[in-house]
Amino acid sequence: MKQTTKKIASLALSFALALTLFAGAPVFAEGDNLPVVTGSTARTQDPVDQTDGNVDETDDGNPAATATPTPTPDPTPVPDAFISNYSVDVKDDSQLYPGGKMNLSITVVDEWAGTHNAQLRARINSSSFVGKDAVVPYDSTTNAYKFEFKDIEYLGGDNTFKFDIITENASEARAIITLSLPINQCAERPEATPTPTPAPPEVPKIMVKDFTFGGNSVEAGKEFTLELTLFTTSGNTNLEDVMVGLTFPSDSKNVSLASGSMNTYVGTMGPNATRTISYKMVTSATMEPGSVNITVQLTSKNGEAASSPISIPVTQPERFEITNIEAPETMMMGEEGYLSVTFVNKGKSSINNLTAEIQGENLANPGQSQFLGNVAAGTENSVDFSVMASAEGVINGKVILSYENSKGEVATVEKEFSCTVDAMPMIEDPGMMDPGMMDPTMGEDVEGGMPIWGWALIVVGVGAVAAVAVVVIRKKQAAKKLAQLEDEDEDI
């Protein structure tokens, strides 16, 4: 019975020893049969040798066989491996977008690799990055290894760069250390913003805003300056190569350029801009009063062509004047004299609404006025007035002719005259004479001739008849002239 109990105890001890040995054996990963180390502290344990001992079975002097296991040595501690420094160089951009590449430099401190005389190889272990392994040869002077990853492409997704450090030595087994670090430069590429469609160009229009020629009209035969003010409307682009041209009527010879060219190059004009250009021009001296019509042509490289007609009034110079005035040099008090005024229109345009008026000092009938109507170009005519003095002395007067010229303006011409007024001769009545002043022989027949008083009466009578005759003749002449003027006025 005791012998059986010893055998059961021996078997139990052997089974426990076998379990202990199995638990200390290394576990190999698939593929490379490398021990996988996660984190920074891991290494491969040394193989454990197992030796079966002899078991002696002794019971009551009988030897018993007992299996004694060889003790397993403790694994060598592995120092921590960690990243002490790194740098990222993103190519062609400041951000690492999917499809972009970078150069990555990582410094790893691993004392275990140095002490075991190992060569390190780092390979990428991440689905977000792809590239070649980085190999660092053994350096006995330092435990820091600097891995240089070249042209690492970022595929997108997670920005954690994971890599495995493989230590390999001819005399020792290989181990794997997995390290990782975030790449903060990784970013998702922003969605492309569609380029907005540019608005179609809005080309401004060009026109003639205003024009001047130095006054309200131009005198025929005189040079003048035509100034054009150009204006462009609103828009979002410029007018290029703006040109201005003048066009005269094909049948007109009344206007021409005094100097310069009919076409003017303006160049570039922006929206809402103004520009002033000028031309030296002259009209024909023989043209009838009226107007000349000019067309301004406006063109540009990228805008619409436009035209603008302008009209310039043209007048002839005024040459209306009084050529002669006939007035009596002397006249007697109470006598009615006659004044005749001759005028002529030497210009090339008619004189309209002609009015003649007489004014002056010592006139018994001032303010006389006559409406003569229109006077055609190249026409001569006359007008008569009656003149009477209000007192003895001198009549100082003037004739005023008022008219409208071709511009519609009222103009006047004047001419002065003068006349001496004498007293009417006195006729003495013989019956009123003082008897003491009479000749003693008056009333008696004188032998051999007519009495003296008879001759005096004859002289007075002749003088009176002569004075009456002069007045009658002058009245007849004045009436005849007035009748002629009335006939001429109807022909004007």
Description:
The chain has a 5-stranded mixed β-sheet with strand order 1-9-8-4-6, with no helix packed on it. It has a 5-stranded mixed β-sheet with strand order 11-18-17-13-15, with no helix packed on it. A 5-stranded mixed β-sheet has the order 20-26-25-22-23, with no helix packed on it. The protein has helices spanning 2-23, 111-115, 452-491; strands at residues 36-38, 81-90, 101-110, 119-124, 129-130, 134-136, 144-154, 160-169, 172-182, 206-212, 218-219, 223-232, 239-247, 255-259, 263-269, 274-283, 290-299, 306-315, 320-326, 330-332, 336-345, 351-361, 369-375, 379-388, 393-404, 410-422. The protein starts with a helix and ends with a helix. The relative contact order is 0.07. The radius of gyration is 70 Å and the shape is rod-shaped. It has 3 helices and 26 strands. By secondary structure, the protein is mainly beta. The model is unreliable at 1-5 and 18-66 (pLDDT under 50).
Features of this protein?
mainly beta, single chain, 42% strand
Taking Cα atoms only, what radius of gyration do you get, to the nearest Å? Answer: 70 Å
- Biggest sheet details: 5 strands, mixed
Tell me which oligomeric state these chains represent.
single chain
Total DSSP helices: 3
Taking pLDDT < 50 over at least 5 consecutive residues as the criterion, the unreliable ranges are 1-5, 18-66
Overall shape: it is: rod-shaped
Rounded mean pLDDT is 76
User: Which percent bin holds the helix content?
Assistant: 10-25%
